[in-house]
Amino acid sequence: MNTKDKESGSTDAPAASDAVALLKADHRAVEKLFDAFEKAADGDLDAKGTLARRACEELTVHAIIEEELLYPAAHRALEKQDEIDVDEAYVEHYLVKTLIEKFDSLRPGDDGFDATFKVMSELVKHHVEEEESELFPELRESGVDLVALGVKLAARKNELIKKLDAAGSKLVGDRSLSFTRAA
């Protein structure tokens, strides 16, 4: 896959053939959810609740595939000084997962709901910036097989989405804000 293909923004399956492209597509999908939440009217509690739930589901799936597959591969492939970026990513994931857990008890309209979502989105945006400007280029330079890793990431992501479907997730079946297309 050439650089032009990776950066064309195509919504077709090529993202699955390269780990970095797949993860960047996930980042763009979550950013769309954050933007939609910001644009939602204060009183549109249904929209805010749906957007928060979808963002939490997307982020959870994304974190799992990174933690199970990407970060261990990065630890093996990167020099010691670059491993700090991976360790920092784990800590950032922990913080975001802690905020995601808050949505188990928070409901749209509750005190703190919008603030929690905003802080979560700011943490994720910071995390995305670091991954895309530091970790992903380091991985490309390391020589790790990003195509093979992308295949593994895509397969695991599909497994997790099937689990969400089985659990009755509203995310599944509505991929309008995601770059992944059902086969």
Could you state the order of secondary-structure elements as H and E?
HHHHHH
Helix percentage = over 70%
Number of strands: 0
Distance between the termini: 20 Å
Mean pLDDT: 84
The Rg value, from CA coordinates, equals 16 Å
Quote the beta fraction: under 5%
How many structural domains?
A: 1
* Low-pLDDT sequence parts: 1-16, 172-183
Question: Which structural class do the helices and strands define?
Answer: mainly alpha
Biggest β-sheet, characterized? Answer: none
- Form type: globular
- Helical region count? 6
Short key terms for the protein model shown above:
disordered C terminus
Structure description:
- This protein is an all-alpha fold and 183 residues long.
- It has one domain (16-166).
- The chain has helices spanning 3-7, 19-39, 45-77, 80-102, 113-142, 146-166.
- Helix 2 runs antiparallel to helix 5, helix 3 packs parallel to helix 5 and helix 4 (80-102) packs antiparallel against helix 5.
- The radius of gyration is 16 Å and the shape is globular.
